[in-house]
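Input record (one chain):
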Amino acid sequence: MSASSLEQRLACLDWASIEQQLDQDGSAVIDNLLSADQCHELSGLYPHSELFRSRVVMARHGFGRGEYQYFAYPLPQRVAELRGQLYPRLVPLANRWNQLMNIPVQYPPRHEDFLQRCHAAGQQRPTPLLLQYGPQDYNCLHQDVYGDNVFPLQVAILLSQPGSDFSGGEFVITEQRPRMQSRPQVIGLKQGDALIFAVHHRPVPGVRGHYRVTLRHGVSRLHSGRRHTLGVIFHDAQ
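The corresponding structure, as predicted from the sequence alone:
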């Protein structure tokens, strides 16, 4: 997928409906954002250690089981295009959410300008990553924050095909509401689907205006096979 074809694909989406879904659930799925060939191309990058700045084995840190690698700069072209072209589509919602939650932060229209803000604050390490899971692997509930400068939305793209490449391994989001029990979501994805979801919190309307709920995400245990995911995070890390 070239930069222009990705731009055309994103331009054809019903962003009003996507925003409505994000307002309602804190997550929204874009069906078939990437083709099977594009998914195979990205998952095939995993063994190429020269493309990555670090590798994390989850069990060593109590994060779960499985592993992931953070890409180094310069990012692979397709990863850079996804990051750069998804960001401006999400900025209006991110700014509106912050206003509703009384957070005095607004995001610039261009991703390059937001990265300059991150880098000036010492957040200079790239955060897009590839995750790899095998049988019995899972990812504990967590948030991808990495510093004071946080863009409140991120994207996960499933690169493997459920049912043939792996079984189990569902994407899970929990929402912790004030004085209420947590609400779980189990989100079914197909190969090439992109899930947009809240990084750490989102506004929810209440009787006295909007209040803030806290979200975490993870992956349930794989039963068999191998699962690869591309994570697109828009802020860099300290």
